[in-house]
Amino acid sequence: MIWEEVTIRVHHPGLEAAAELLMDAGAEGVVFDQADGLEVVRGYLPQDADLDARIGRLQKGLDRLPVIFPGLRVRLSRNRVDDASWKDRWKEFFHPLRVGRRIVIAPTWEEPDPRPGDLVLRLDPEMAFGTGSHPTTAGCLEELEEWVRPGIRVADVGCGSGILAIGAALLGAGRVLALDNDPQALHTARDNARNNGTEIECRQGDLLAGVNETFDLITANLVASLIVRLAPQAAARLETGGILIGSGILEGKGKPVEAALQGAGIEIIRTVQKGEWITVTGRKR
Q: Which residues pair with 227 in a beta bridge?
């Protein structure tokens, strides 16, 4: 399949707004990076009849950002890629890495060198996001190491490649539900779960809408505005004393997230910052 790779370079204050505009244009997920002193947000749009119209709406939204953030620099670029070239791009920079105390994330095309007791998580991102290299993913995995107990029930909201759901299963969770609104991400998550010998259920959905069961732990590596929207849903689906791990929160966006969680009955018990990215852990009262 042919995709349009859309890259937005922007000063830090406009990063989250640019990411939301890109998702509104149809990107099912975004990945963040830095280049030439600017923040970079990248997403992929399908090459279809609506592409030019969606790019046009995106550009109009980006053109308004300097009005909201005076002096902001923002630039959009496009590149056509297919599934094969996507995989080649991953192979350029995705290599085995250690996260937390004993999780080793390794691409399927390289052999890791684990220590005794390590948990090796084999991953092929395909067309989904999530390799463990980003501070938000690493922050969630480190919190999962702290909170996953044998047999607990876990929901991963916005699962992408399935990395957090699979990590929870490898750490001993008994029931894992992976949710995403992108069918391609769910396909990738299923494949990765199978390659790791883990059993997770993958389900398409908008956050936790339509989910009726309860969980001991919910993880959500999204963006601040989506975690704010998720807060009441998560509180309704968490057991008393259950844990919520939320990340994808830019520096300066933490207070609204904490207020939303606390307002929903989730007490903040830990906030960890890696660079400009915040991971928040809360417990349902």
A: none
Count of the separate structural domains present in the chain? 2
What CATH number has the domain bearing residue 180? 3.40.50.150
The span from the CA of 124 to the CA of 55, in Å, is: 28
Per-residue DSSP letter, 152: -
Annotate 87-149 with DSSP letters as a single string. HHHHHHH---EEETTTEEEEETTS---PPTT-EEEEE--TTS---S-SHHHHHHHHHHHHH--
What count of other Cβ atoms lies within 10 Å of the Cβ of residue 110? 11
Residue 103 lies in a domain: no
Contact 141, 132 (CB under 8 A): yes
Q: Are residues 44 and 141 in the same domain?
A: no
Residue 195, SS3? helix
pLDDT, tens digit only, all 285 positions of the chain = 788 889 999 988 888 889 889 988 988 677 777 777 888 888 888 888 899 999 999 999 999 999 989 889 999 999 888 766 666 666 666 778 899 999 999 888 888 888 999 999 998 866 556 666 788 899 999 999 999 999 999 999 999 889 999 999 999 999 999 999 888 889 989 999 999 999 999 999 999 999 999 999 999 999 899 999 999 999 999 999 999 999 989 888 899 999 999 999 999 999 999 888 899 999 999
Supply 76's token pair. 């959009």
Q: What is the CATH number of the domain that holds 18?
A: 3.30.70.600
Give the Cβ contact number of residue 231 at 10 Å. Answer: 24
Beta strand 103-107 with 97-99 is antiparallel
* This prediction's pTM: 0.80
